[in-house]
Amino acid sequence: MKLAQRILAFGFSAMLMSAVAFGADKKGDAKKGQEVFENSACMGCHNTDNDEKRGNAPSLKGLFKKAGTTDAKVIDKVNKGGNGMPPYEEQLEPAQKTDLVAYLKTL
Ligand code: HEC
Fold first, then answer.
1. What is the per-residue pLDDT for 27?
2. pLDDT above 70 covers what percent of the chain?
3. Does some domain include residue 1?
4. Measured in angstroms, how far is the CA atom of residue 57 from the centroid of ligand 1?
5. Containing domain of residue 45, as a range?
6. Which of 35, 55, 38, 11 is nearest to 95 (CA)?
7. DSSP secondary structure letter of residue 84
8. pLDDT of residue 24
9. How much distance in Å is there from the Cα of 58 to the middle of ligand 1?
10. Which of 51, 61, 74, 78 has the most Cβ atoms closer than 10 angstroms to its Cβ?
């Protein structure tokens, strides 16, 4: 009986832990997203600290404050690129894209 209880308790805490890990993953990690941003040449084209366009690339400062910006639209743009932006569908893992979104929300 005791052993069964211990197994139950273990199973329950493992479930809790994975729920927490899953939640964190879903939300994205802004700090990691910043690294992805800096290592994926995004910063070579996009300003993040002022509103100025660089060439055709719009500043990403305040991106998520603009009406109509959603996680899905931003991820779609990152995946497909277009109009002068390279596609990142193959280059980045899904989790890295979620992290990117979390970072872009801080701008
Ligand atoms: C070679 C230059 C270049 C690189 C590198 C680049 N982009 Fe872009 N990006 C652009 C251009 C140009 C546009 C505008 C495209 C358009 O008008 O459709 C754009 C548009 C966007 C948009 C839409 C902005 C809006 O206001 O709707 C997002 C979001 C974005 N880029 C994110 C990124 C991220 C994240 C990265 C790195 C993973 C990245 N870009 C790398 C050139 C670039």
1. 85
2. 76
3. no
4. 6
5. 28-104
6. 35
7. T
8. 47
9. 7
10. 78
Residues 102 and 73: their CA atoms lie apart, in Å, by 14
Place of tokens 């991820």: 75
Q: What distances in angstroms separate CA 61 from CA 18, 20, 44, 51, 65, one per listed residue?
A: 33, 30, 14, 6, 9
Average pLDDT, the chain: 87
First-residue to last-residue Cα distance in the chain: 54
Residue 3 lies in a domain: no
Cα–Cα distance measured from residue 79 to residue 100, given in angstroms and rounded to the nearest whole number = 12
Is residue 61 assigned to a domain?
yes
Q: Is the pLDDT score of 15 beyond 60? A: no
42 lines ligand 1 (CB under 6 A): yes
Residues 6+ apart with CB under 8 A from 45: 54, 55, 57, 85
CATH code of the domain in which 86 resides? 1.10.760.10
**Model pLDDT, residue 11:** 57
